[in-house]
From TrEMBL:
Molecular function GO terms recorded: oxidoreductase activity
InterPro entries in the cross-refs: MPAB/Lcp_cat_dom
Protein name as it appears in the record: Unannotated protein
Organism of this sequence: freshwater metagenome
PANTHER family: BLR2777 PROTEIN (PTHR36151), ER-BOUND OXYGENASE MPAB_MPAB'_RUBBER OXYGENASE CATALYTIC DOMAIN-CONTAINING PROTEIN (PTHR36151:SF3)
Domain ER-bound oxygenase mpaB/mpaB'/Rubber oxygenase catalytic: 51-261
Amino acid sequence: MPAFHKFFLTKHLADSFRKNVSGSKDGLPDWAKKIALGDDAGLFKPDGSVWKVHGSLATLVGGVRALLLQAAHPAPLAGVAQHSRYETDPMGRLAGTTRWLTITTFGSTQTIELEAKRVNEMHSKVSGEYTDMAGSRSNYRAQDARFLLWVHCAFTDSFIKSHLALGYPLPDGADEYVRDWAKSAIPLGLNDAPKSMAELEATLEDFRMNDLGRTEKTLEVVQFILKPPFGSTGLLFYKIIANAAIATLNSNELEILGLKAKSKIWLKIARGALNIFSAILGPESPSQNLARQRIARIS
């Protein structure tokens, strides 16, 4: 196949995937334009660990890993099954998560506050019952501190471990990322997020011992996460990303999710695919470019 045709197909795939993730094939949906607004740098320093982690394409692997890991907790899993539109509009749910992550990473504090208000209003409607690991029926609310802590830790653990496992650089280290990203949880009502890798791992171990486990919905949701309604070409790329995500999970998490361990070779394959995407899409996202323009304007 001529090089031009290979480029065209890869560009088409990149545009399609970016549309699925953000809602716009140019990576700049209407909500992202809000990143240009405001008169401060936001919660995180430009080119700090949070910018480096969330500005890299490793977030594609981290995002899939986070969705899988969250499914290991019966309460958030029940919230997804009972309140989300993952079956009827799975890409809408993914785009919504991308919106919050992107605005919180690159937006001004004012824009972040507005986005957190939107998310909190959505969370206020999410409540119900689930079966805990003792077999008892328990209540959950998306705004419960324990619920928020798990979701935050699943995201934090997934993004930092995927970033490092894929071989992306992080000069200031993982502790800075965990400490700084803890700020993102405060507008959502969580004030005691882990501030270091050691604290993060200790918190995750507490969840493993006391909260995590498989329910009747676990395998159903996991299989849906692993095989979303993409076209054949998009699904091939997604499989590479998903296998890389699975390769970073530990044995306890794999057992709960009903998954078999994947070879670390998938991380190398995924890194190669992401390198191709990066060459096509450019070194920085449109959202990151808007953030730089905003910061330059106020400097």
